[in-house]
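Researcher: Here's the sequence for the chain we discussed earlier.
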Amino acid sequence: MYKLTLFLGVFLLITSCSSINNFQLYKTEASNLKVDNGLLVFEDSVCSISYNLWSENGNPTFLFYNKSDYLISIDLTECFFVLNGISYDYFQNRTYTHSSGTSRTVGNVVSSGNTNSTTTSTNSANSAPSYFSQISTNSKGKSSTQSLSSTQSSMSSTTTSVGYSVSYAEKDVVKIPSKSGKIISEFSIIANRFRHQDLLKYTALGEIDSMQFTNETSPFVFLNTITYQIDALLNSKKTVQNSFYVSTILNMHEEQFYYAAYAETFGKKDDFKSLFYKYKSPLNFYLPY
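Model: Thanks. This is the structure I predict for it:
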């Protein structure tokens, strides 16, 4: 207990020298999803759709996994992210361009002159190798060169460049083979801190202020509408909606957002404690301010 108190004291001393970060934590509810192996999962006989909202600003990205023995198509023109009643298209109709190029310079040098040179070499294990000498691990030596030269030269060069550019359009249909999945990502949930007269922006040290909501009173209600079909079967098109709402919002200092514990590496505890997220969950997300 003494060590933990000492650790938190040092942590607060360090953070007091700079601006203290505060966090707004958002807890959500999702009626048609269950927590499984650290993910929020919707599942039917054909597919499973998984989420992990935990990130700064919230992450509604989903992993669509094809459980069937057939090829599945996701029609992105019929897939939407909906936040507080405003719909956003997953299909953006974008065009991507990839460019690549190389250049080559060819030079001609004409020179004339006289050079007298004398070189001596001895082996030494203590000589400091240059960058290029490190390429050869068997080379250890020391050398000195004396030279006297008189040179006249002229040089001309020619530079040629070769490049290409490839453009391709965004696909409106995503194909997912049997027993595999694809990640569909496009949006974040929030951009700014939620403000309310009953929610303190800055809480007292060690305290947390919070507000609770129902599905009807929540300031953030969002969902993914996903349309897919099995290519080999007629009339197999199906639309799934995965709905969420923010049920609790908490404001806190950063020392309330983390906890200190010993991490383990290959079953052995570290010598020093590390900071971990106290509220990490696939149902939660956060915003620092």
